[in-house]
């Protein structure tokens, strides 16, 4: 599109407006919540929120603002809605479902490519996890990616399946672990390249009192089908977070920033990640 300059200038204010709206919506949801949630130990809730296979219902709204995208170094915005719902199968096993619903604001990537906002590829992972974990907490199960993108530039055009696993340990104020997912395409549009995607998210958290914590949870990805120099995205960085309440509703707020020390040519060179999660800890 020819309006590159005005588009790039309007994005920062648009992001602030989107983020303000998101915060307002979260506050409204909290006030309308019918089920009271009580939490005396904010630090314990923080550790549950940091555990990807915890028996904790949560609804994160994660906004990733990627800077330096495309040939014009524009800004891409990816809002991911990530409901996590655990199910108790029996006294020994839990099933945790993690869904990622991305809403992408894509800048112009090439002539007639991008400059669109829509839904990306929805992802689903199912983790079977012990109901009575030991020193190492873990979960493993199938992972899926669905060709749900509303525009060609927002997704792979392929349905994919594979495996996902998470493992972590909690030692005093420290919570350290990693989540790994690998999927390959099994169906989809015939004119699109086959997909083979790898993701590893190491996470290191140090918890203070009153729900404050430091965190680093970069999302390292690899496109196994990518050409040399376009395969890996390796972010380095971190930030902090806080558990807080609005009425009886528990929330988790996180801010992190990452420098992408390795990334595909047209991908962003750094990312600001803002997240607010609704938490529903057990009474």
What does this entry show, briefly?
The protein is mainly beta and 283 residues long.
Overall description:
The protein has 283 residues and is mostly beta strands. It has a single domain (4-280), classed as Porin. Helix content is 13%, strand content 57%. The chain has a 15-stranded antiparallel β-sheet that branches. A hairpin with a 6-residue loop joins strand 6 and strand 7 (137-146). The termini are far apart. The relative contact order is 0.17. Residues 1-13 and 30-40 have low confidence and may be disordered.
- For the record, the CATH architecture stands as Beta Barrel
Question: Might you state the CATH topology name?
Answer: Porin
Helix content: 10-25%
| Number of separate structural domains | 1
Counting helices, strands and paired strands, the structural category is mainly beta
**Biggest sheet: strands, sense, closure?**
15 strands, antiparallel
Overall pLDDT level: 88
Weakly predicted, low-confidence segments: 1-13, 30-40
Query: What kind of assembly state do the chains in view correspond to?
Result: single chain
Q: DSSP helix count?
A: 2
Gap between N and C termini: 53 Å
**SSE arrangement, N to C:** HHEEEEEEEEEEEEEEE
Radius of gyration: 19 Å
In terms of DSSP E residues, the strand content is: over 45%
**DSSP strand count:** 15
Features of the shown structure:
globular
Topology of helices and strands:
Blueprint: H1 4-32, H2 42-50, E1 57-69, E2 74-81, E3 84-88, E4 93-110, E5 113-119, E6 122-130, E7 137-146, E8 158-171, E9 174-188, E10 196-207, E11 212-216, E12 220-223, E13 232-246, E14 249-262, E15 270-280
Antiparallel strand pairs: 1-2, 1-15, 2-4, 3-4, 4-5, 4-6, 6-7, 7-8, 8-9, 9-10, 10-11, 10-12, 11-13, 12-13, 13-14, 14-15
């Amino acid at each position: 599109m020819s309006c590159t300059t005005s588009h790039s200038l309007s994005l920062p204010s648009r992001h602030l407006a989107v983020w303000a709206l998101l915060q307002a919506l979260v506050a409204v949801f909290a006030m309308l919540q019918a089920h009271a949630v009580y939490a005396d130990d904010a630090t314990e809730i923080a550790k549950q929120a940091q555990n990807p296979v915890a028996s904790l219902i949560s609804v994160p709204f994660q906004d990733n603002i990627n800077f330096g995208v495309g040939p014009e170094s524009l800004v891409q915005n990816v809002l991911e809605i990530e409901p996590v719902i655990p199910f108790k199968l029996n006294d020994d096993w839990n099933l945790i479902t993690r869904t990622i619903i991305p809403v992408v604001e894509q800048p112009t990537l090439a002539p007639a490519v991008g400059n669109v906002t829509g839904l990306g590829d929805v992802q689903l992972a199912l983790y079977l996890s012990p109901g009575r974990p030991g020193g190492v907490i873990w979960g493993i199960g199938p992972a899926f990616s669905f060709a749900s993108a509303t525009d060609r530039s927002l997704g792979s055009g392929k349905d994919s399946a594979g495996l996902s696993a998470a493992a972590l340990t909690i030692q005093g104020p420290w919570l350290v672990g990693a989540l790994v997912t690998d999927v390959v395409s099994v169906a989809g549009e015939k004119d699109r390249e086959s997909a083979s995607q790898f993701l590893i998210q190491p996470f290191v958290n140090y918890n203070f009192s009153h729900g404050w914590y430091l965190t680093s949870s970069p999302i390292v990805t690899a496109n196994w089908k990518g050409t040399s120099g376009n395969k890996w995205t390796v972010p380095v960085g971190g930030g902090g977070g806080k558990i807080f309440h609005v009425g009886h509703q528990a929330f988790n707020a996180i801010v992190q920033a990452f420098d992408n020390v390795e990334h595909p040519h047209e991908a962003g060179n750094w990312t600001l990640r803002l997240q607010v999660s609704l938490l529903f800890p057990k009474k």
